[in-house]
Amino acid sequence: MTSRIAWAALALIGVGVALSQSGSRADDREQEESLRVLVHLNFADTGRQGQGMKNISRILEADPGAQVVVVCHSGGINVVESSRTDHADAITSLIDRGVRFVACENTMRRNGITRDDLVPGVGTVPSGAVEVVRRQQYDGFAYFRP
Amino acid sequence: MTSRIAWAALALIGVGVALSQSGSRADDREQEESLRVLVHLNFADTGRQGQGMKNISRILEADPGAQVVVVCHSGGINVVESSRTDHADAITSLIDRGVRFVACENTMRRNGITRDDLVPGVGTVPSGAVEVVRRQQYDGFAYFRP
Amino acid sequence: MTSRIAWAALALIGVGVALSQSGSRADDREQEESLRVLVHLNFADTGRQGQGMKNISRILEADPGAQVVVVCHSGGINVVESSRTDHADAITSLIDRGVRFVACENTMRRNGITRDDLVPGVGTVPSGAVEVVRRQQYDGFAYFRP
Questions:
Q1: Are residues B20 and B47 in the same domain?
Q2: Domain boundaries, position C94
Q3: What is the dihedral of CA C53, C58, C59, C62, to 10 degrees?
Q4: ipTM computed for the complex
Q5: Interchain contact, A12 vs C7, CB within 8 Å
Q6: Which pLDDT tens digit goes with each residue over A73-100?
Q7: DSSP string covering C53-81, please?
Q8: Best mutation site among A58, A69, A99, A133 for testing chain C: the one with the most C CBs within 10 Å?
Q9: What is the pTM of this model?
């Protein structure tokens, strides 16, 4: 009887150890995990957009494996239009370093912008607003507004 | 003896299965869960406020069950004042679709605004700033600034 | 045999209880835990910066134990420069109440600002942009842009 209690206790201890180890692993992962950041570009001010590009460069310097998604919509759609942007070179360079730029298809439609009008390498999403929410809520991205 | 080890092992396996299943359920829930978004309206620019209303409509189109809370405070309090807002119809329509608009009681007091001055259906919170933090920290809402 | 099944079942029940209790503790902690907020000051408008100071005061009134980190970088660096800020007294008072103000070393270098130029008590971080992301992603801080 006592030996059975001992075995049951051992089982519980084993589970406890397993749980605490999985906890440690989670902590380690958190310390080591790449930065994940949603950059919200929904404003037309090109100076401020340029500041955003610099902010992203700094994040990549600190963590070359950072996951950066730049959502361009509403008033900020101009930043990814080839004919209007002041930041084509910076965008191309950041895309080369793994940053993902996406334009909002709603905003594009409303403004008669086609995929051919975008800086090469820029993707699209059905809704920029939804993407801003989804990346935070589902993928654990931090929010950053330049 | 060996059969006792077997039983203890079985107990551990059972727990392992239970844990991994609960993990799967969490993943499923995350995939299916409604969008939750805190819209931060703390600026007076009515054009930009109108852009925010459009953003919210897009989120509701993507997910009619989305939980949207719009916190209006500081310079953005005008958006929910009946006599000053440019967006009464949009607000009423969004409230009908389940969006929650709340005005900051601190800001109201400072500006001599009463509940009767608010667009019908708009609620209040003691502090808009605190609500912005609480919704993110306690309820897992994404942050969105139009 | 049946008693062994009973013991194994008991082990599972014990683990279940332990798990559900740790769940309850997490819930309780969440209800009681201090507010944690990252205030993003990356704009030069001193009126709006002052609004941010008031927002922080309101958060501390609601929760005197709130953890508040104010990241000052890019165009917002002026708020913590002794010679340029309009808010030295407010900053000193908030620091006394436990708020942490940090200036971005990248921005400081670019603008020839040294630690001696900062309002006393203001700290620094290597990169303001990275700090904004890390506090949200690693420490569970809410985002707040005045």
A1: no
A2: 34-144
A3: 160
A4: 0.80
A5: no
A6: 999 999 999 999 999 999 999 999 999 9
A7: HHHHHHHHHH-TT-EEEEEE-GGGGGGGB
A8: A58
A9: 0.82
